[in-house]
Write a structure and sequence with these properties.
Strand content: 15-25%
Order of helices and strands: EEEEEEEHEEEEEHEEHEHEEHHHHHHHHH
Oligomer: single chain
Structural class: alpha+beta
Strand order of the largest sheet: 5-4-16-17-15-14-13
Number of strands: 17
Length: 410
């Protein structure tokens, strides 16, 4: 990859493949209690992303490289200093269009700017590198002040009320260990995150919603937490019921998203089937998944809320088959029927990862390798599912229903 020595112009970034893409994906995952089962469903987060389009104009260029590959492929690209109407930003331009630009920052966040708001910019002689957790802690101290404690361990940087950050940090690191172990035992060793894993736990819902409004994240009074691939931050808040199952499920769900998008299970700049992303996060909603035992027959590892919904749905196998077919090719059902979609995504993910682990790993590696910024069409989604699993969805559903059927007591 070559960054032009001149100031940014009509041929701002030179890409070897000469492929020019418009917008990168920018989904946020936000969760609310549902009315039916007091579980968690996507809010405005479902499909709230810039749909990528392939362009052939030199006026807009997206580096065809995933955020997670930067350190491996780039030998320290030069930092761009960008002055907007509001503040000065520094990072690497990954998209430069006629109306909008995207800048990758040292903490892993991707900032979006309207071209009309950019006053001037210059390429520096400094090489881009990811910020360390220690450096990140210093920046977060400036951002959140002395009233918040910041704890770090490995890649995690946790911001919380004084005296509480260590407790949150322990939960996140325990989950991270469980996810790494889960995939390594299935032949999918995960990489070390290149950027800090920033988790912000606000002292109350009011401060959480205020932050959301300021950064236009779309949270509302029902939102319990969120992870944004664009900011790469996880956002939660303290409640009087943090020990209740539904709140703990949200914490584990959002933290799983952050882990998966930073350890190579998912790719932040690629399109992907939502059932695979939400299914995995729903699997790790169960606190039992954090335990050392990986006994596939241990029903305690099942997500009780998702399983309850699955049990009701499985009474009509033909309808489950139709739901699975729809989720394979489309994400729309997560918006129209969230409870049922999450339950099916959970069951499908748990079953495939337990009973067809090699195929599941190959499938997950395939969707993580999808070209950044390109749409994953319904036809491609269907073809990949059939390639790695089966085209006989009826038989697949029969086996899944049998897998989750109550076992007779000895």
């Amino acid at each position: 990859m070559i960054i032009c020595s001149n100031c940014i112009g009509s041929s701002d970034l030179l890409v070897e493949a000469s492929e020019f893409l418009s917008y990168v994906l920018g989904r946020s995952f936000a969760y609310e209690p549902s009315k039916e089962y007091s579980t968690f469903v996507t809010a405005a987060s479902v499909k709230t992303y810039f749909l990528p389009r392939i362009l052939t104009s030199t006026a807009s260029i997206l580096l065809t490289i995933g955020l997670s590959w930067i350190q491996a492929v780039w030998a320290g690209p030069p930092i761009l200093e960008l002055q907007t109407r509001h503040h000065l930003e520094r990072g690497v331009p990954i998209y430069w269009g006629s109306d909008r630009s995207l800048l990758l920052k040292a903490d892993g966040a991707v900032e979006s700017f309207l071209r009309d708001d950019i006053i001037k910019y210059r390429k520096t002689n400094e090489e881009f590198r990811a910020i360390s957790p220690v450096e990140c802690r210093s920046n977060l101290h400036d951002e959140f002040g002395k009233k918040m404690q910041i704890a770090i361990k490995d890649s995690y940087v946790v911001v919380a009320q004084n005296g509480k950050a260590d407790r949150w940090l322990a939960t996140f690191t325990q989950l991270d260990t469980a996810v790494v172990r889960y995939f390594s035992t299935r032949g999918f060793p995960l990489r070390v995150p290149e950027f800090p894993l920033i988790a912000i736990v606000f002292p109350n819902q009011e401060s959480f919603l205020e932050y959301s409004r300021k950064h236009q994240l779309g949270a509302n009074a029902l939102t319990l937490g969120m992870y944004s691939p664009m900011s790469n931050r996880m956002l939660l808040f303290e409640t009087a019921t943090n020990d209740r199952h539904e709140t703990l499920h949200t914490i584990l769900h959002e933290a799983t998203h952050q882990i998966a998008f930073n350890r190579g299970i998912h790719q932040r700049l690629s399109d992907y089937p939502l059932w695979a992303v939400e299914g995995l996060a729903s699997v790790f909603e169960s606190p039992a998944m954090l335990e050392l035992s990986n006994d596939a027959s241990n029903i305690n590892r099942w997500n009780p809320v998702r399983f309850a919904t699955w049990q009701v749905l499985s009474l009509e196998p033909s309808k489950v088959t139709e739901r699975v077919r729809n989720l394979i090719i489309s994400d729309d059902a997560f918006e129209s029927q969230p409870d049922q979609s999450y339950a099916v995504a959970w069951a499908l993910t748990f079953y495939l990862s337990e009973r067809h682990s090699e195929a599941y790993v190959r499938f997950m590696k395939k969707i993580a390798s999808n070209p950044p910024g390109m749409e994953y069409s319904a036809e491609s989604r269907k073809a990949d599912f059939q390639k790695f699993f089966t085209s006989d969805i009826d038989l697949l559903v029969q086996h899944a229903i049998k897998f989750f059927a109550p076992k007779p007591r000895p």
